[in-house]
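Allow me, if you will, to draw on your knowledge of protein folds for a short while. A protein sequence and the structure tokens that stand for its backbone fold form the material at issue. I would ask you to consider whether the tokens describe a fold that such a sequence might reasonably adopt. Thank you for your consideration; the sequence and its tokens are set out here:
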Amino acid sequence: MQACNDKRSKPTEVLSAEHRVIEQMLDCLERVAADGRVRAALCAEDARDCVEFLRTFADRCHHGKEEDVLFELLRARGMPTHVGPVAVMLGEHEEGRALVKRLDAAARSADARAAAVEFAAAADEYVALLRDHIAKEDGVLFPMAESVLRDEDRVEALRRYEARERDDLGAGTHERMLGLSERLAHKYGVKRASERAAPAFGGCCHH
């Protein structure tokens, strides 16, 4: 599995590798939600682990790198962030955060049946949102980013990614998140991130 602070030459490659990790957890989230539907009760540990991963890895680590590093560098190179692809991505980040709050509330509910129903509903929305979001970033935004970033921007982005891992998340955090994801993937028989092919950039956005 790719680590959150994976060493790669391009900042978009780091983010794309993290997408594969997030996709692994999206599959786990679907399985946890489906299991809850069938049993009319959530596995509390698995539901909590899903929420923790989504908040820590998907949002604080991954979306944080995009918002605080990549998008800021793109803005400095003239790409607008209040309209266009970046604005869409920012809006979807906020949608995702709202859905994770719903997942968390459901996971903490004392009403087992209602919790399972609400968790599954929020999981369906979150998985659909994130899969579409990832496809747009990998297929459209990241190729656009590579067309405007300069070499010095790439070096700066990678440096700031490492600083975020070290200073903002804390030592051992991403390893713990990866271990958590591996536990769920093993339990639910989900394909690992390392087995998922990265998308090939191309088409109208690749000049």
The chain has six helices and no strands. The radius of gyration is 17 Å. The domain at 11-188 is CATH 1.20.120.520 (Four Helix Bundle (Hemerythrin (Met), subunit A)). The mean pLDDT is 91.
